[in-house]
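Narrative of accomplishments. A recurring question from our advisory board has been how the design workflow behaves on a single, concrete structure rather than in aggregate. To address it, we present the structure tokens for one chain from the evaluation set, followed by the sequence designed for it. No filtering or post-editing was applied between the two.
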């Protein structure tokens, strides 16, 4: 009996030691350490989301998220590496180590939190409506669009699509691969409205104000965060600390003003 108990306790001790060692190894393989060892920060995003990430006329990636990501990389002495990824595959790309972080205007949702971990919100937005000019004055709220006679467009796999399904269940919903394709449906008369993030809709309407109108008051609350692989507290701690630093030292405000309070950058966008 004593021999059996001794063997059992020895086995348990070895198992605990193995678990402790594996946990230590997991901690040692934080994405942050991988970034420092490789000398580059690989950032996933889906270019085309104004003013967060876009492609310039000369082929460069530019935008609010891009500038913040470049500054983050410089702050830890590594190179910034852009990884432009289709939105419907962006979380799988992170999970399969094709990038280190998603910095691409991603809304923090419970569903996404089951797959990734998020930093503290770095900006808060909401859904607004690009409306056909023929409905100006007739439709003044998202509630008015909840009717089978209206066709509403949005982008596949986004909170805009989710909001449309939730708040406008009676309307016909058409989903598109890109925000440009969705907004163009309204401009071309193939949809009555386009529901998407306020920053994008505001800029798009300013560019096409003779063809569409903007119901600008957001009807949802959506915090955006940086997404990382699960079980990596070291990386999350770094990201939250970095965010506090740039909001405190004026860096965040300078970058925000460049992309949200000025439209000079529009002439450089494709």
């Amino acid at each position: 009996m004593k021999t059996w108990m001794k063997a059992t306790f020895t086995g348990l001790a070895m198992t605990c030691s193995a678990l402790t060692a594996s946990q230590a190894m997991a901690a040692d393989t934080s994405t942050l350490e991988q970034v420092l060892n490789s000398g580059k920060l690989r950032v996933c995003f889906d270019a085309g989301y104004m003013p967060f990430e876009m492609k310039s006329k000369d082929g460069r990636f530019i935008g609010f998220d891009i500038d913040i990501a470049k500054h983050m990389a410089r702050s830890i002495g590594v190179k910034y590496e852009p990884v432009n990824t289709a939105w419907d595959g962006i979380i799988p790309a992170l999970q399969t180590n094709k990038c280190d972080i998603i910095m691409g205007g991603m809304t923090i949702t419970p569903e996404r939190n089951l797959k990734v971990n998020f930093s503290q919100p770095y900006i808060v937005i909401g859904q607004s409506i690009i409306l056909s000019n023929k409905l100006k004055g007739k439709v003044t709220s998202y509630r008015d669009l909840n009717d089978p006679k209206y066709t509403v467009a949005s982008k596949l796999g986004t909170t805009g699509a989710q909001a449309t399904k939730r708040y406008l269940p009676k309307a016909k919903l058409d989903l598109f691969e890109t925000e440009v394709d969705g907004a163009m449906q309204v401009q071309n008369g193939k949809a009555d409205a386009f529901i998407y993030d306020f920053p994008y809709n505001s800029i798009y309407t300013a560019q096409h104000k003779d063809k569409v109108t903007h119901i600008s008051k957001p009807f949802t609350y959506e915090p955006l965060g940086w997404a990382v692989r699960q079980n990596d507290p070291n990386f999350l701690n770094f990201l939250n600390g970095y965010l506090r630093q740039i909001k405190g030292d004026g860096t965040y405000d300078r970058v925000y003003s460049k992309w949200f309070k000025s439209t000079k950058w529009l002439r450089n966008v494709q």
